[in-house]
Amino acid sequence: MDPCQGLRLVLPPGPLDRDRPARRGQGPGRPGDHLHRRRRAEAGRAHQPAALRRPHAGQLHLPGHDAAARRRRPHRHPRRRRADPARPAGRVRHRGPRLADQLGERRRHRLHRGRRPMTTPASPVRTRFCPSPTGMVHVGLLRTALFNWAHARHTGGAFVFRIEDTDAARDSEESYRHLLDCLRWLGLDWDEGPEVGGPHGPYRQSERAEVYRDVAAKLVEAGHAYESFSTNEEVEARRLAAGQDPKLGYDNADRFLTDAQKAAFRAEGRDPVLRLRMPDEDLVWTDLVRGEVRFAAGSVPDFVLVRGNGAPLYPFVNPVDDALMGITDVLRGEDLLPSTPRQLALYAALTDVGVASGTPRFGHLPYVTGEGSKKLSKRDPQSNVDVYRERGFLPEGFANYLALLGWSIAEDRDVFSMAEMVEAFDVTRVSANPARFDVKKAEAINATHVRELPVEEFVARVVPFLAGAGLVADPPSPEQDRVLRTIAPLAQERTVVLSDAVGLLGFLFTEEVAIDPAAAAKNLRPEDGEVLDAAAGALRDLADWSAAGIEQALKSALVDGLGRKPRQAFGPVRVAVSGRTVSPPLYESIELLGRERTLARLAAARDTARDTSRDTSRGTAG
RNA sequence: GCCCCCAUCGUCUAGUGGUCCAGGACGUCGCCCUUUCAAGGCGGUAGCACGGGUUCGAACCCCGUUGGGGGCACCA
Fold first, then answer.
1. Residue A159: phi, psi to the nearest 5?
2. Does ipTM come in above 0.90?
3. Has residue A44 got a pLDDT over 70?
């Protein structure tokens, strides 16, 4: 299996090409455009302005194996233009040029290097998500999962889920379960991984120990890895002695130890670590989101693959598993960017010993930040996905917001479904800027999704929250169900997160309502007593107990009878009945509540209004 | 200290040399609608970090400065 070799440098626009109208509801379609443009792109390649023919991001950079990668391309071009049906065909970007063109073009366009368009690789894309189960699920982590998933789904590739549980001290079965649960909650499914299986298992690193042992042995045998006996103290001392900054790290001093030297160290009782010999070339790759990134030769020291006690480390096992699992595209957090040179070097070595068959593409996703501009800390409660689940964010609403953290579907739209995301998602259009997690915006996006829910669906989703608060049974009783279905359409548009329903609808499912003190202070003042009395009078013997009948009775009693403005007339009644200033529409609420409970609440509110009076006079006197 | 990444309204973004006195969304402010609160509708506020270059033309390409962030483990 060769995940990467098949990546071609030139691809005609294919079925997965993004050069098609991806937006919906964007005015009249232009059915001919796609074909038309495609024809132009193919036939007109030679006539394209040279600047539009840019190399793409799909080639593999194997350090030392790719002459093009070593060529210095000191400039960068930002990002590619999105294909837009409305644009003149001549501006439409197609896939990359042929290799010959590409090299020639690089010479001609040294001023335009940088992020290149994603190719649709000849071999299917395989992405992965590989968290370690060490605690709560971070919103940034889930965003990474979402982007990997969307990239795989968009390209028709596979999404692999692997658990990196090599740190027994921090990993727990509980957080492992929780991780799976969160992915499923968000609607992400994986083609290979835990509980699903697949041809490259096991998918938990804790079960792959012998794999790493074998690979490590191969690397040593081929001379890519070597035993290193230096202690940190010794390294530091050598750096200091040489007048260098000890922060430079390991000095590669053990690269050429003789067998006799090694034996002497062992005789001292030292256990060597295994280090990878870093190459002498610059380490360069074309990042899917950032364009070319280069680390100078010699700037990254030989790093540890396997501990002295034989335990393999993350920088080793991660690429090994990626290679073995045929991963072609690695989308991960920006925090991993500085470790990419090491991975590149490892990949070259793994390829040399036949474990890997090429280097994957890398894309480093921007940080998700919190208040200020610091990376959202794991300690920050805002970063915990559970908080949003518990508040009743819809998975589709939350996923929508997560997608907006670094990506946008169109310039005039930011509410979309997962299916629409999959259709439109393009990694190379992910922003490189850090994105602030904005709860307000997340809520606004979620509220839109809530409103778009079919009513029955809204009811179904809200029931667990109501039941959790002890308001209804789960499943609701027939009577509760009737009330719920009736009020749902009116409550839905007032719901931002599902847990809002508890406060909004609670009054319908209890005998006595607790009145919000702030609402009482505002709408149950002494002078509001007359309203409550009049309302009770109007409703006590009302023959037509319907929303319309109630409306008529209240209007004539309060507005006409007392001469109050609607606002002054209905506010107190609303608070009396629902306990809050925000509730579903009043007449419907009263109808559902029934005569008995309504009259009881009006009477109770009457007392509250008197109390308010006493409080007020006391306050004034004091 | 060394290395790397980033730089458009308060926030997230669109923008890839002329179609931009910069578009959308969230927030915010005002108005309308209205039975409170929402929702909805309409309108307003607010931004290309700075300095050089390249070019007939720069938010966009290049260099530098400044600012912000991250990484420098026998953690993942």
1. -115, 120
2. yes
3. no
